[in-house]
Amino acid sequence: MNITTRDREAGWRPALVLATIGAVLLVVVGVAAAVLLAGRAATPAEEGSGSSAQSGQEASAGQDGSGALVARAAGETAIYDHPSAQAPSGTVPEVTPFGTETVMLITENGAAEHDGWFEVRTPVRPNDATGWVRADAVEVEEVDLAVDIDLDGRELTVLDSGEELLSTQAGIGEPAYPTPPGRFYITDKLKTPDPGGAYGPYALGLSAYSEVLTEFMGGDGQVGIHGTDTPSSIGKASSHGCVRISNELIEELAHLLPLGTPVTIS
User: Fold this and answer.
1) Annotated catalytic residue 255
2) What domains are defined for the chain?
3) Catalytic one among 82, 114, 242, 255?
4) Per residue in 204-224, pLDDT tens?
5) Residues 6+ apart with CB under 8 A from 117
6) Which of 82, 114, 226, 240 is the catalytic position?
């Protein structure tokens, strides 16, 4: 495994979803074992003070930073097909099925097209699903970090304000169950009950879903980034769609990457 890294000052300390053995099944498309969590929802830990938070109305005035904008749901949030729509087409809950606060990545033009509204990427099928939310219904934070996953090169790279922070080999989906390409983001961060198990110490749930599996071990085929108990699978097309990296690095990323971090798979 080849890892390159440079120092980075501690900033935003993202929420970690702490999990213990219980009855809820974490189903990210990956190796055969499942991660069991206590109850329906694990408990989000406190966030650090390094995030740049602002109200939706303030953020809609402009997108001056170099990072991505992330909308954090303040409660159950209505999703509209367009700002001119008379009624919402659906809602997203305040928390995910794993107890994480729901976040949505604001699209590249979503903060500028319509005053008082954001176009967001929604954490549902299909993978390119977007919708509009009222700016006053969300809190907006800027995230400077991003993840790029190169399927051909089987490499995962973390960027900080566009500059490479670290890179490593990664396992990807096998040909029958390919890792889906697209623009996604981190929706959940889960600490597993068995650090030496199939998912390693942590799993990062993405807004991506398998384009082949609509059901996997009782779940809906959500894709994630996680560790592995089979290091030899890293750098190979060996999973059911998830991205596998070393246990050491997934633990580092679980503390480094905030919810909403953009993940580009290509």
Assistant:
1) no
2) 4-46+144-265 (2.40.440.10), 52-143 (2.30.30.40)
3) 242
4) 999 999 999 765 554 678 999
5) 60, 80, 83, 132, 133, 134, 135
6) 226
